[in-house]
Each structure stands twice: as C-alpha cells, then as structure tokens.
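Think of the structure tokens as a kind of shorthand, similar to the way a musician reads notation: each symbol stands for something richer, in this case the local conformation of the backbone. In the example below we present two proteins back to back. Begin with the first one, reading the sequence and then the tokens, and try to describe in your own words what changes along the chain.
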Amino acid sequence: MVRPGPLPPYGEAIQQAVASGDLAKMKAVAKDAEAFVAKWGNVPAALEALKLEIAKLEYKQKPKKG
C-alpha cells in the first residue's frame, strides 16, 4: 500500500527504517517517534479508552427488550 506524504513515525515507518539497515534513517525515525509520543502520549492506551467509551454509549443506546 502506497501512502501519499510522510509516514507517521510508528508502525510502517519504523519497520521500513529497520529493514533499510540505514543507521541515520533509523535514528531519524526514532527521534520523530519520540517527539510524537511526547506530544500525543500513549496512543494505543488512548485508543483503548476511546473504544471503552464507545462501547458504554452503544450499550446505553441499545434498545431495551421487553
């Protein structure tokens, strides 16, 4: 899958940097990823919290039987 523009500094970008074997590229991606985490925090944990809130709202809005 080809994406336009720069890759987010995680997942695919990290995998590509490692696969490249290019130390400078790996260091640059690591620096970008650290900046991303510093700005946005633990994205996977925030996503899980969001999914939990979605599930709660869906449960509350679920039609009641009976």
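Once you have a description of the first chain, move to the second and do the same.
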Amino acid sequence: MCAPDRTPSTLARYTTASILIGFLSLWSYHAYPPRDATPGLNAPMHSAAAPLALTAFYLVSLPSLKWFTEKHLAPKYDMKLLLTESMVIYNVAQVFLNGWMVYEMVSAVLYRGHPFIGSRSLSGVAINSGASYAVWVHYCDKYLEFFDTYFMILRGKMDQVSFLHIYHHTTIAWAWWIAMTYSPGGDIYFGALLNSLIHVLMYSYYALALMKVSCPWKRYLTQAQLLQFTSVVIYTIATAYKHYKYLPHEAIEGEQPSLGTYYFCCVVQVFEMVSLFVLFSLFYKRSYSKKNKGGGKSHSPAKESEDQCHKAMGEISVAAKEAAGHAAKDAGKLVASATSAVKRTNAGSRVGAM
C-alpha cells in the first residue's frame, strides 16, 4: 500500500504564510504606539498581569500545539515544506525589525543627544531621543519570539524544545518588563542595542539557511556573540560605578528611579545574559552526547542545511560558557558591593540628621 502524499499544496503553504502575516500585523498594532505615548515614560506601563497572561498562554499553548500537530497536521502534511514560506517571512521580518531598532538607538546616541552612559533619566532627552521607544518595541519583540518555539514544535523538532529553552523565552519577557517598568530611560538602551544587532545577524543567517544560501558572516557569529556578552557586562559594571559615584542616589519623581532600583535592573540583566549561555551550553552538551553515542551518523546535505543555524548556536554557547561565568561573577560582586555602599551612605545620612 502506497503512503499518502503529504506534499502541501501551494494554496496551503500561502494560507499558512498569510496567517503568520496576520499575527505580525496584530503584533505591530500593539507594539508601535504613538511616539509621544511611550509606555513607562510618558504613558503608563501595563501591569504585571500582561506578561503573566502572555507567558502563561505561551506555556499552556506548547503541549496543546504539540498534540494538535501530531494528531492533525503531521499525518497530512510535510511540515517543513508547509512552513517554508512562513519561516522565511518570519526571519526576514525579524531582520528588518531588529535592524530598525539598531538604527533608532544608534541615531539616538549619535544625533539626538541621548547619553552613551551615565543616565537613568525619565524626562527630556529620554523621551525626545527615541531610544526608550525602541527599547519598548524590543520588549514587545520578546513575545513575538515565542514563534521560535512554535516553529520547532510544528516541524517536530521536540529535541530542541528543552526546559531551558522554554525557561529563557519565558523569563526574558519578564526581564524586559522589569526594565521598562522600573528604569525605562537612559542606559537601558545598551543591552537592547547589542541584542538587536546580534539578532540581525542570527535571523538573517536563519533566513539564508532556509533558502539554501551560504552565509558570509557565519564564521564570525561566535565572536560577535562573545563580544556582545563581554560588552554588556563591562557596560553594566561601568554604569553601576558611574551612577554610584557621580549621580544622585535618591529617586526623583518623574525624573529618575533610585539607585537601588536601577541596580536591581542591572542584576536582572546580568542574570539573563548568564542564563542565555547556560541554556545553550547545557542543551547542546546533551545533544552532542547523544550524537556521539549514536556512532556519529552522517546526515544528508538537506538535513545539514536544515539544522546549521542550530549548530551555530551550539558553537557559540560552548565558546562563551566559561567567559560568561567569570564575567557574571565579577559583575555580581560589583553590584553587591555598590548596593552595600549605598545602604551605608543612607544609614550615615540618617544618623547625621538625628
């Protein structure tokens, strides 16, 4: 008995792509408010109920999507072919989206007066430069990136949907919500800028891999990721010191959050950077161990092309793991020391006032 033809029709493929475009349009409607109404700055930031609802939906939707795919989609369609156009559209959209964010933040620093370092201002240039507006869009993109996991499930790549992968996609949304809620101005832009730049390289790599096109910057992705992490940690250490040494420590209503609040955001950022590398290092260590136990079976060119972007992430994580651990420990010690110093200063001020 002949196996049923699972090749999706052109109509099915483009219908799937149209559904994705609909989701992208809905996301854009909510992610791009008027520039004079940037949430967290000159408009109210939504409460924790929003990330709670969205991340809870994400977690619940994963097993539901797995069941639906295995029960109704995979038996009827070749999912890789069905999703080809959709994945190209998604990755290209991410390239343009992250490219726009890079442009906005670099322009804010170079041409619109946004300070490179040493500000947690919530007024003036923080609003006019547009940097925090781009960071708001960057925060919203963390929810759009849930599609990274959805595409893995739809294509049956359940070995890539690890606990740590889900953990990272869930917590990174909360990390940026914390930043936009408690310290949405000034130096917040730097981590978003470098992360967006890396995403331009990574998502363009994914798109080229899907189209079977060689990626000219593939060999530099590991160095770029290492440079991103190192730069963010160094910047965090420098800004923590600068805020402690040269800027007022107290909160000023409508002008800046307190130093303690800002340090809290710094700790969250460093923690998320470390969790990113731990996520991939553990995931790929397990994946490569299974491959070695399997006798190092060779893959077809199509299989290698399909998975090359994921292999690149494995190479990145292995190279960065040790550097990440040491840098994170140093940053944590600095932030802890600075926080203790702030407490001692405040205590001394209270005693002197008695």
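Compare your description with these statements about the second chain. Residues 345 and 351 are 10 Å apart (CA to CA).
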